[in-house]
Amino acid sequence: MREIPFNRPYLAGKEIEYVCQAIKSLNHHGNCGWTQRAAAFLKEKCGGGDVFLTPSGTAALEMGALLLDIKPGDEVILPSYTFSSTANAIVLRGARPVFCEVDPQTMNMDPVCAAGLVTDKTKLLLPIDYAGVPCDIGAFQGIAEKVGVPIMVDAAQSLGSSKNSRPCGSFGALSTFSFHSSKNISSGEGGALVVNDPSLVERAHYIQEKGTDRTLVMQSVKSQYHWVDIGSSFLLSNIQAAMLCAQLENIDEIVSLRSRVVRAYREIFTPYEKVGCILLPKIPSDVEYNYHKFFVIFDSAERRSQFLSRMKAKGISPYIGYIPLHSAPMGRSLGYRPEDLPLTEDLASRLVRLPCYAALANDGLEYCVQEMSKVIYEFYG
Ligand SMILES: *Cc1c(COP(=O)(O)O)cnc(C)c1O
Prior knowledge:
alpha+beta, 39% helix, 13% strand
């Protein structure tokens, strides 16, 4: 029997060479050689905003929340259907996460619901790009402009995707990426904050460099640096940035391999979607996406567990999506109840993500397709 994991990190080939160069260069800290090279690549790829490489996507969100001065008493609207880090960035600042329902077509935050959650305490809209599909940013911009608040996009999964021919990373005052090994592009752990609002750039440097103006010394503007603001160490090491560069050079290849996996899955499941047995992600017509993940929403939670155990018996490891934050222990301790977001609760209980990684395209995809076809036929004939 074959073993098909849920995810397998991609190796572009030059990682070891670049990492060795970074080590031998004796520059191992952040904001030098490879870090600058990766940041320049991302700046070019993501519409020109200033790019700050961070130790993780989580750190990028936390840096963003600091930069936007999110404070106790503030409310931030975000989906319940997301990773804990999206909410933690807000809760760590003492602010309240206001959880919003999803659009079942994409599992991204629903703009109509978001508009209804605005109060005079709302300070930020924080949508995510689930599975690599950009959120309905136009609708969020409309709300944000009306209310007079910024947007930070948790674009952890959507590097390489675009909407309306504009790349992910270029949306909102801030966008954040993750280079965790589960994402399309990986440095093991890593992330980036893209600052699209020029008025936030200077302070972003201070916050990234432990609250100092060290960047000005590096740019030879000043001779000494001082403690000028709050901050933390939000830097990615040059060694990890070297690995990141090797991966970024192959971004098109990675997306193309993943697209073969996603297209094959879509082909097997589409007939069952057409007759209403299951739901599949709908890619909006103005979106090009990076094929980060592909999900199926079954007609019941029982059907999902049957699918998971049947796949497990064949050595294939699909995986559920998020367990909604509002009904998780931490969400409940903030006063939320499962019934507050019934749509999210229901869809999350039926959703499964299929194994998706670049190497699967050439090794294992046929096996997955064959076994999944059998099971889905058995379920729905
Ligand atoms: C992966 C992910 C994160 C966290 O990124 P890390 O690099 O693992 O810290 C945050 N939000 C979303 C939506 C993610 O998918």
